[in-house]
Specification:
Largest sheet: none
Shape: flat
CATH topology of one domain: Annexin V, domain 1
Helix content: 55-70%
CATH superfamily of one domain: Flagellar motor switch protein FliG, alpha-alpha superhelical domain
Number of strands: 0
CATH architecture of one domain: Orthogonal Bundle
Strand content: under 5%
CATH class of one domain: Mainly Alpha
Radius of gyration: 38 Å
Distance between the termini: 129 Å
Length: 347
């Protein structure tokens, strides 16, 4: 018995626990379990269910962890965090590779065949359509068609709309017959256009808004002088008179209508016109208009305005311009007075 007791160790060795093998998943477990619970909960919200299940399975294993393993885990994490996901400039190739996997080779190649900044028209479209038209109009319709075919549809439409109607039809007819254009030809055409536009830039010039300049001068003359001048201008160019009147007086200028003049304007327009025009009116102008009608009418206007759904900005601007034209007519007839017009003070 004594011999048996002597052979038995005094303290049986405890079961040896294995140390963590520092793979990325096990490092993730160590990192997660070393953080505060609030931080962990925020991290888990950004993880997929599969990753959370993997962490759960690994965390259930009995690993022996020493300070060296944890320090290495922190160090590896910081190094990974500082390492760019992709090398500089590799993003394009990465996206194209993913697109090829998801869309197939043919579709991905056509998708990335030529980005907008690589297209020859990129610099052309930075110009105003008027500048481009000035260069293209003398050209053969076939040449213009080839150039417009390479422009973005929206910009090409703006350029085309500024050309003569007969020429427009010829250009579109030529464009409709196009099937392919050699890349060298396209490059040569756009280079030629750019050269001509650059020649235009080389001349010293100052941009002047003639309409705004004349409108500013007329606004500082007396009403009688302004009307005489507008009459004379109208004899030469009737359309110019309307453009000048609109430049001299905008929708927000209705704030300057004096006394009961706003009521006179409102009587001349429909309720639908007024509601539509108020859609983008300033608070100051809206208050002035509402104060010029009865409380019941103001309530109806506000209800109609609140019930109005989305509308095109062009429709709102059209309604506002119609009201402005009405105000201008009433002013010319002497039915209303607008403060500050004609350089005269109101007393």
């Amino acid at each position: 018995m004594a011999t048996q007791i002597a052979k038995q160790p005094a303290n049986p060795p405890a079961e040896q626990k294995k140390y963590v093998e520092l793979t990325k998943p096990t490092q993730a477990v160590l990192l997660i379990m070393s953080l505060e619970e609030d931080t962990v909960s925020k991290v888990l919200r950004h993880m997929s269910p599969e990753d959370i299940r993997m962490l759960h399975a690994l965390a259930g294993k009995e690993y022996q962890t020493d300070s060296t393993s944890l320090a290495r885990t922190y160090r590896d994490f910081l190094n990974d965090a500082r390492t760019p996901v992709l090398p500089a400039g590799a993003g394009t190739a990465y996206i194209e590779r993913l697109a090829q996997r998801s869309l197939g080779s043919d579709r991905s190649r056509s998708l990335f065949k030529e980005t907008d900044h690589d297209k020859p028209y990129a610099s052309i479209e930075k110009r105003t359509p008027e500048e481009v038209v000035a260069v293209l109009e003398p050209e053969n319709p076939q040449v213009v068609a080839a150039i417009l075919a390479e422009l973005s549809p929206g910009y090409a439409a703006k350029v085309l709309s500024l050309m003569d109607g007969e020429i427009q039809a010829k250009i579109l007819a030529k464009m409709a017959t196009l099937e392919s254009i050699p890349n060298s030809t396209v490059t040569a055409l756009f280079t030629a256009v750019e050269d001509q536009l650059s020649e235009v830039d080389s001349g010293d010039s100052i941009q002047v808004d003639g309409i705004a300049r004349v409108a500013g001068i007329l606004s500082n003359l007396s009403i009688d002088e302004t009307e005489d001048l507008l009459t004379n201008i109208g004899d030469e160019d009737p359309g110019m008179v309307l453009r000048l009147r609109r430049a001299m007086f905008g929708f927000e200028d209705l704030i300057s209508v004096q006394g009961r003049g706003m009521q006179a304007v409102i009587k001349e327009i429909s309720n639908d016109q007024l509601v539509l025009a108020l859609k983008t009116a300033s608070d100051t102008l809206r208050d002035k208009i509402l104060s010029s009608v009865s409380s019941r009418a103001a309530e109806i206007l506000l209800d109609d305005l609140a019930a109005m759904g989305p509308v095109k900005l062009s429709e709102v601007e059209k309604a506002q311009q119609e009201i402005v034209d009405t105000a201008l007519r009433l002013e010319s007839e002497g039915a209303i007075v607008v403060a500050g017009r004609g350089g005269e003070e109101i007393v």
